[in-house]
């Protein structure tokens, strides 16, 4: 509460706690989270915490409140120097503001951020900024983000005919695992690896091709309310998307593949319940020849 109301000013004390390497990581992470309730001043000191897998998440939550394009450039430069969890978080933060997404796409164009690590749902989020130039650039750097069109049953049949047993036998399991990590593991778990935002696929009907195609091609055909995607734009231009985990008279908590985001209700400019799954359409269309079999 002292941090929220700045009386007394405990900002410096919280920063000192976070920086104290003799303290437990849980205490340091808590200090960063407390500081982030009312961030102030230069946020660049938070960049040093991105190298710690345990402290990167609270540091990124605070960094996401910034708006300076120079800070976005610092985040893009840090991408190659941090671990997988921090890299995923950096991508989500950069995709959250249009000005920062411009920096992100520029980094992919230059190759400083590997486009193969950029997940489909964040590409879709950038397309939702309704900026045709930015959309064209990310499609050149990353891949197609065209909406799925046509009859879904016909699409299932098209892919079922293409993915014959002979074609599937040509797939490479190692490449397939890498594709799963890139496109699915942020939300889905398989054999103990991956996220828990979506269903665990370990026990899924993995031997039934039609089951997979129907759920990949039309993920929003049947989707429970708890898995429907909500998109929030804040008054300072930030876009946050995810499923609603909690709502209080003061805050909205959204959960996405990158973590949880708490948004004060007073800072919300628009809020849209899409009625669609958090899983994006068109995942198969975005794959290169041979990759669906993998």
Please characterize this protein's 3D structure.
With 294 residues, the protein is α+β, with helices and mostly antiparallel strands. It is 42% helix and 14% strand. It has helices at residues 2-5, 11-19, 25-35, 53-63, 69-78, 84-94, 98-110, 120-127, 132-141, 152-162, 165-169, 173-183, 209-217; strands at residues 189-190, 193-194, 228-234, 239-247, 251-256, 259-264, 268-277. The strands form 2 sheets. Strands 6-5-4-3-7 form a 5-stranded antiparallel sheet, with no helix packed on it. A two-stranded antiparallel ribbon has the order 1-2.
**Beta-strand fraction estimate:** 5-15%
- Number-wise, the strands total 7
Mean pLDDT: 85
Low-confidence stretches: 1-6
| Approximate shape | globular
Tally of individual helices: 13
Largest sheet report:
5 strands, antiparallel
Order of strands, widest sheet: 6-5-4-3-7
The span between the termini is: 52 Å
Radius of gyration (CA) equals 20 Å
* Class per helix and strand makeup: alpha+beta
Task: Please estimate the helix content.
Answer: 40-55%
Which H/E pattern describes the elements? HHHHHHHHHHHHEEHEEEEE
Which labels suit this protein?
single chain, 7 strands, alpha+beta, five-stranded antiparallel β-sheet, two-stranded antiparallel ribbon
Topology at a glance:
Elements: H1 2-5, H2 11-19, H3 25-35, H4 53-63, H5 69-78, H6 84-94, H7 98-110, H8 120-127, H9 132-141, H10 152-162, H11 165-169, H12 173-183, E1 189-190, E2 193-194, H13 209-217, E3 228-234, E4 239-247, E5 251-256, E6 259-264, E7 268-277
Antiparallel strand pairs: 1-2, 3-4, 3-7, 4-5, 5-6
Helix pairs in contact: 2-3, 3-4, 4-6, 5-7, 7-9, 10-13
């Amino acid at each position: 509460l002292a941090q929220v109301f700045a009386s007394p000013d405990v900002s410096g004390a919280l920063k000192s706690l976070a920086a104290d390497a003799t303290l437990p990581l849980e205490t340091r992470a808590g200090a960063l989270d407390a500081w982030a309730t009312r961030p102030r001043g230069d946020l660049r000191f938070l960049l040093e915490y991105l190298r710690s897998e345990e402290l990167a998440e609270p540091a990124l939550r605070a960094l996401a409140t910034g708006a300076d394009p120079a800070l976005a450039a610092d985040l893009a430069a840090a991408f190659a120097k941090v671990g997988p969890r921090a890299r995923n978080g950096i991508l989500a933060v950069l995709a959250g503001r249009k000005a920062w997404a411009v920096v992100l796409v520029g980094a992919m164009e230059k190759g400083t951020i590997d486009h193969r690590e950029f997940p489909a749902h964040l590409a879709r989020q950038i397309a939702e900024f309704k900026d045709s130039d930015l959309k064209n650039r990310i499609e050149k750097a990353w891949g197609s983000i065209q909406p799925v069109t046509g009859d879904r049953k016909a699409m299932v049949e098209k892919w079922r005919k293409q993915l014959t047993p002979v074609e599937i036998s040509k797939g490479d399991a190692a490449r397939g695992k890498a594709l799963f990590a890139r496109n699915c593991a942020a939300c889905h778990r398989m054999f103990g690896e991956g996220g828990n935002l979506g269903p665990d696929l370990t026990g899924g009907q993995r031997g039934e091709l039609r089951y997979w195609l129907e759920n990949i091609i039309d993920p929003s055909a049947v989707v429970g309310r708890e898995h429907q995607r909500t998109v929030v734009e804040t008054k300072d231009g930030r876009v946050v998307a995810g499923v609603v985990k909690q709502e209080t008279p003061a805050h909205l908590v959204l959960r996405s593949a990158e973590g949880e985001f708490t948004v004060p209700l007073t800072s919300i400019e628009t809020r849209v319940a899409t009625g669609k799954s958090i899983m994006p359409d068109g995942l198969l269309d975005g794959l290169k020849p041979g990759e669906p079999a993998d």
